[in-house]
Structures are given as structure tokens and as C-alpha cells.
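Most newcomers find our protein records easier to grasp once they have seen one. To make this concrete, we reproduce a full record directly below:

…
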Amino acid sequence: MDLYRYYFISIIMQNILAPLGEHPISLEQEALLRDCCKDEESFQRAYAMLLQATIETKIDNQSTQAIQAFPELVALIGTKFRIPLHTIAMSAEMLTRYAGKLTPTRRDMHFDRIRKQVYFLRDMVQNIALITTLDEQPLFHPTPFFEMCARLEADLQMSASYTSALVFRYNSNETKSLHIDYEVVKQVAENLVANALKYSDSGHPITITLRKLESTWELQVADEGIGIPRRDSDKVFQAYYRGDNVGLRPGMGLGLHNAKKLTTAMGGKLTIESSGSDMGTVATVALPIKIDDDLN
């Protein structure tokens, strides 16, 4: 019975370490271990003990790295959360203390500030959480083009901070099916729309265009906002990078980085075009209509 017990321990431990993309014990180590053992049971016992030690060492190393990086992450999140939380607190205090004295316009202004900062915090938390799942493979399913467009419009209208600014354009008569992972497509669209809203003045339209081409389909988000300086155009997809012209607008520099990673995972391409500061931005996601077998 001991032979099977240690054998199964070995198999389980190898499966635990498999996501690391490496064999936990080299062939040389295994051969040396086998030479030192008098029988198969002794070998399996020793092999299981070596695997356990290997796992514990890797976990200790990863925990040490995580602990070392934790203060920096906490400092970054604390810095980015401070301003929106302060804005929410100040507006809530004004609404509570001077509710009877504020004009309807002033009240709406404070409610608008609170709503905008809450949406920003939600988007930021989602992008932080998304980092841990960027390497997961999408799950593609055939979905009629119009059905996908209508569903995406409804979801974006529900999640966007300023729904009146969103303008949707797509062919409602197109019935051809696409092979997509809708949840991943939605996450990309939400990131691009959140970016467009964040860097545009209130009331300026955000145009979302969905079109089917011959072998690809496109999701395009165009705004009339602050644009991207030419010197920053080759850095927009870097994690935590933010342009020089963002001013006091809050953010962590993760939206485009995550959108790019997710688009690539679906076999697509994300491009960003801007003529410069205050010239608006156009983000275009191009995805294949039929997905290659190696992406399924």
C-alpha cells in the first residue's frame, strides 16, 4: 500500500507544479535518486519527499517576492484611491450639511461628482483584479453579430458613468455569427469606453462603432477628448504609464494595457490613433470572424 500512496503523492505534486511550466525534478536528479534507492517503494518515497521540498521552496520564494512587492502595491493603490475617496467624502458632506440650502444645480453637481468617482473606483478595482487573469485562454462560442451588438450596447449603457454620452453604430440587420468570448469582448469594450469618458469633457459624445468586414470584425471607440501627445504614442500600452497631459484625472495606467492583453489573447489587434493633444482618440479592436483552432 505504501508504494501506491507515495506514487499518488508524486502524481498529485507534479500536477500542482504543472502550471509553473517546468518539470519539478530534472531527469538527472531522478536517475541519481533511483540509483540510491534499493527498490521501487524506497524510490517513490524519496521522490515524494523531494517533490514536497521543491514545492515548499518555490512557495517560500514566491511568498517572499509577494511580500516584498506588497508595500509598493499598497502605496500605489493608496495614492490612486485617495483623491476620489476625498471627493466623494466632500460632496457627501456638502449634501448632508447644506441639503436645504443648495440649489438643484449644486445638488446635481455633487451627485454627479460622487457617481463619477464611484464608477472610476469600480473600473480601477476591476483592472487590478484583471491582472491576475490576463493569461487565461478565452472560451469562444458562436454568437450572431446583431445579438452581440445589442447585448454589448445594453451592458455598456448600464456600466458607463455618463450613458447619455454614448452613441452606438452597427448594422441591426447583420445576422452572421462571430466566434467570440463575450465576457472578454465586454471587458475590452468597458476599458476603452471608461478611458474615453475619463479623458473627455462632460457632454462630448463617445461613438462606439461595430462593423463586420470580410474576414474580421471591428469594435471602435472614438472620443473628442484630450488626445495623446505624439511623444507618448508608443507608450500607451505600458502598464502603469500615464501621459503628461492627463492632469488631475485619476487613473492607474492599466486600462489600455489590459485591453491590449485581452485582445491579443483573442487573436486580435488593438490600435490607438490620435493626432495629438486635444485632438481626440480612436481605439480600434480588430478580431477574426473565424478563430484558428490553436486559439480554441
